Amino acid sequence: MAYFAAFLHMIDIEKNNEVRPLHINYLEELDKQGKIFARGPFSDQSGGLVVYIADSFEEAMSLAENDPHVVQKVRRLELKEWVI
């Protein structure tokens, strides 16, 4: 298992408010599966961070790309492996 930091850079703050419930539900389901280490918004409203737990970069990318905020193009995804 490895950790992958998904930086979710804000693109559309108005649409973000509409999509947020889907985003939160998606992450809650992944959290139940043990796929989330940490998550939350940045205080300056520039986006947020999700730290995924995955077996590979490809798995983490798939999880991150299926986030409704990314699917709906509300936030731009930047994914990096994070070494603790």
Strand content: 35-45%
Poorly predicted regions are none
The end-to-end span amounts to: 12 Å
The CATH homologous superfamily is named: Dimeric alpha+beta barrel
Report on this model:
- The chain is α+β, with helices and mostly antiparallel strands and 84 residues long.
- The protein has one domain (2-82): Alpha-Beta Plaits (2-Layer Sandwich), CATH 3.30.70.1060.
- It contains 3 helices and 4 strands.
- The chain has helices at 13-32, 57-65, 68-71, and strands spanning 2-10, 36-41, 47-54, 75-82.
- It has a 4-stranded antiparallel sheet, covered by helices on one side.
- The relative contact order is 0.34.
What are the key terms here?
single chain; 84 residues; Alpha-Beta Plaits; globular
What secondary-structure arrangement, pairings included, does this model have?
Blueprint lengths: L1 E9 L2 H20 L3 E6 L5 E8 L2 H9 L2 H4 L3 E8 L2
Antiparallel strand pairs: 1-3, 1-4, 2-3
